[in-house]
Amino acid sequence: MDYKKKIYILLAVGIFFLSLSGILIKIATAPPLITAFYRMFFTVLLLSPYFFFKHGSKLRYFLDYRPIVVGFLLAVHFILWISSIQYTDISNSVIFVAMQPLFTIILEYLFAREDLKEGAVIGIIMALIGSSIISIGDFYQLGDKLFGNFLALSAALFASSYLFIGRGVRKKLDYFPYLYILYSYAALFLGIGVYFFDLSFSGYGLNNYLIFLGLAIGPTLIGHSILNFAVRYLSTSIVSLSILGEPIITTFLAWLLLNEAVRLTTILGGTFILGGIYLASVYNNHQKRKQSRLNSSES
């Protein structure tokens, strides 16, 4: 087996581990804030020995205000997304959260003065149509699933915000120390939230703590690490396409393991959304590479 095929297989493994996140969150019985806190806390705990051994000199970046802001946005993203799964179907939640690349494109257009090209506009319109189809299907449960859909959509906005704002810091730091600092601040803010809302840090049972650890090891450490590794060897377009497999796999697992029915409106709307995300992401990446080559030739 050649090297590139191994990367594709590794990427598939990474997407599978990412897809477990929604399932693990659904079966957890602890409050969403507790689940979010311990996911980040265990992640930081597991990464700390390597960080202090290899990147101890990067501790000064903890004093930079930007990782603090980005860590707060990540914390809010986790609270919103984990809460959304309590109100709506897992399939709806993961599809709406997958719209993060579209929000990133819009933020780049609004604040980084990057052009909004035709392909990206079509992709955004497709995603809006898909969102409308899913919401119409959930309209009969106005106060329940629509609220969960809104939370998941808000989680996607906060995810794109922390990625957008964090770009400047990522240029100064290697990927690992950046993530460690980001996760540390997210855990800190989530911990403050637990204290502020007078929730207990203990007493949630062994099963819940195993779920928290599973979220830290599987989707967070293994899933995201593989994605970061794969993007070094595969095109951004291929990785973007593979990430769209996460909501599909999660929806299948929810049906298989949790007996969660998938409505026709979710399938139809999800097809529009995922197609729009892929079209917008691939076209946007293509335009960025084209502009980069143009700038290189001019210089």
Automatic annotation (TrEMBL):
InterPro entries, per the entry: EamA_dom, EmrE-like
Membrane-crossing residue ranges in chain numbering: 7-27, 33-53, 65-87, 93-112, 119-140, 146-165, 177-197, 209-231, 238-258, 264-283
Domain EamA: 6-135, 147-281
UniProt KW keywords: Membrane, Transmembrane, Transmembrane helix
Signal peptide limits: none
GO (cellular component) term, any one: membrane
Pfam families (UniProt xref): EamA (PF00892)
Keyword Transmembrane helix belongs to the record: yes
Keyword Transmembrane: yes
Record-linked SUPFAM superfamilies: Multidrug resistance efflux transporter EmrE (SSF103481)
Alphabetized PANTHER family for the sequence: ACYL-MALONYL CONDENSING ENZYME-RELATED, EAMA DOMAIN-CONTAINING PROTEIN
Family: Belongs to the EamA transporter family.
Protein name: Drug/metabolite transporter (DMT)-like permease
Organism: Halanaerobium saccharolyticum
Organism placement in taxonomy: Bacteria, Bacillati, Bacillota, Clostridia, Halanaerobiales
